[in-house]
Amino acid sequence: MSRRRDLLGVVPFLVFVGIFLIIPTLVVAIGAFLDDQNRVTLDNVTALADGYIVQAFVRSIVLSAVTAVLGAVIGALLGYALVTARPDSVVRRVVTSACGVLAQFGGVTLAFAFMATIGLSGFVTLFLRDSLGIDIFAGGVWLYDLPGLVLVYTYFQIPLMVIVFLPALDGIRPQWREATESLGGSTWHYWRRVAGPLLAPAFIGSTLLLFANAFSAYATAAALVSQGSPIVPLQIRSALTSEVLLGRENLGKAMALGMVVVVAVVMALYATLQRRTSRWLD
């Protein structure tokens, strides 16, 4: 009886997962193999080999990889700086709280913040141009293209890295460094032989999580990029909402299925690395 009551508490979670994860995934997976008359076809899947779709996937992967690496490196350094502070210090509490907020500060709000700051009429852009004679858009309006997405995505990748990588940094015990020094090892030996190998799975796993986070992001890019569809989420939007080319909804589902496959592979690798990390964190 007690076991049934325990399982009853999981029911809301299972309902949530079923409605917002399993059912949409099934709709995408089934729709990718149907035409506009609901007949089974492989045309949508084979269309993923078209040049513009392949380029969109390549741009999405490059964007996700670059922002994941930048966010991982900068976030890891910031996390290490936090670890050197006392766990109950005001600085650590403030920074970790700020990272928790900024990691979720995306979408239209973040896009507007960057446009108001360094957009064509942003106050920083105007100040640099009028006061210092520096035109940050002299080589083109890069903010509304792939380079701008790299900058904006990195903004929310860094705090996310701090949140997910900080527990691994906290798991590094001071006694390990003391033991290394007592055996005549230097700081280089400590990081190369002890801390580095221990943190590597967590670092790589966190980087993979950042990759999946950037790869699946939509709202920020949709608000920032008004012309063209350089990445897959915007191509899916175009397929679903285009008033010029009709009947492409299932092609959008095929592209979404491709994204699901990529994210599933990345998250499987992330879960594997997390299990390895938990062995020594526990």
Description of the structure:
The chain is mostly helical and 282 residues long. It has one domain (50-281): MetI-like fold (Orthogonal Bundle), CATH 1.10.3720. It has 13 helices and no strands. It is a multi-pass membrane protein. Keywords: Cell membrane, Membrane, Transmembrane, Transmembrane helix, Transport.
The portion of residues assigned to helices is over 70%
Strand content: under 5%
Number of strands: 0
Topology order in helix (H) and strand (E) letters: HHHHHHHHHHHHH
Question: Mind telling me the C-alpha Rg?
Answer: 23 Å
The separation of the N and C termini measures 32 Å
Largest sheet: none
Identify the notable features of this structure and list them briefly:
mainly alpha, MetI-like fold, membrane, transmembrane
Concise synopsis of the structure shown:
Residues 57-272 form the ABC transmembrane type-1 domain. The protein is mostly helical. It has helices at residues 2-8, 11-31, 43-46, 51-83, 90-102, 107-118, 123-131, 146-170, 174-182, 187-215, 219-224, 232-241, 249-281.
Topology, please?
Layout lengths: L1 H7 L2 H21 L11 H4 L4 H33 L6 H13 L4 H12 L4 H9 L14 H25 L3 H9 L4 H29 L3 H6 L7 H10 L7 H33 L1
